[in-house]
Design goal:
The chain is mainly β. Helix content is 2%, strand content 39%.
Length: 161
């Protein structure tokens, strides 16, 4: 909506944005990661320095494969529900109102798993630093950000999928 000043209003309801469960992961990892749905809030607000996603994980789903970024920070706030955070330190149970952060380059691989009977909502904030690489300690996968900002996935030995 445009105000009298000619400037578009900034506020919006995130629940009105479309959800997508698309992932660029190759098989056999893709299907396990399609039980989570993203609303791209940062893209909707035309943000370029960092991304903001409202992530809904259905019962039995996970946010991603357990991973760690070399150059990008991540911050996650649990908006709704109870979720298990799996990191190199083990499993932590997080409920609504709790949060977690992962500094780039620490190697602390992480993912969120919904073992409850209801949907979980996470607010995920991450920067968009170029040249990021992602390691997956539990899976034969490695991600490298291309010049276009998209990740290209290979096996750990560098062979393509």
């Amino acid at each position: 909506m445009v105000e009298k000043s000619g400037v578009e209003k900034s506020g919006f309801d995130p629940l009105t944005l479309p959800e997508s469960n698309a992932t660029s992961y190759p098989e056999p990892y893709r299907s396990a990661n399609q039980q989570r749905w993203n609303r791209r809030l940062g893209n909707h607000a035309n943000l370029t320095n960092f991304g903001v996603n409202l992530v809904r994980i259905v019962p039995g789903g996970q946010s991603s494969c357990r991973h760690a970024h070399t150059r990008q920070d991540e911050f996650i706030y649990v908006v709704q529900g109870d979720v298990d955070l799996e990191t190199d330190a083990g499993v932590e149970h997080l409920s609504a109102g709790l949060c977690a952060g992962f500094a780039a380059g620490t190697g602390n691989a992480h993912r969120f798993v919904n073992r409850s009977a209801v949907d979980v909502l996470l607010l995920v904030v991450g920067d968009r630093t170029a040249g990021d690489e992602v390691s997956y300690p539990d899976d034969d996968m490695h991600g490298r950000m291309g010049a276009d900002g998209r990740f290209v996935f290979t096996r750990k030995d560098g062979t393509p999928y």
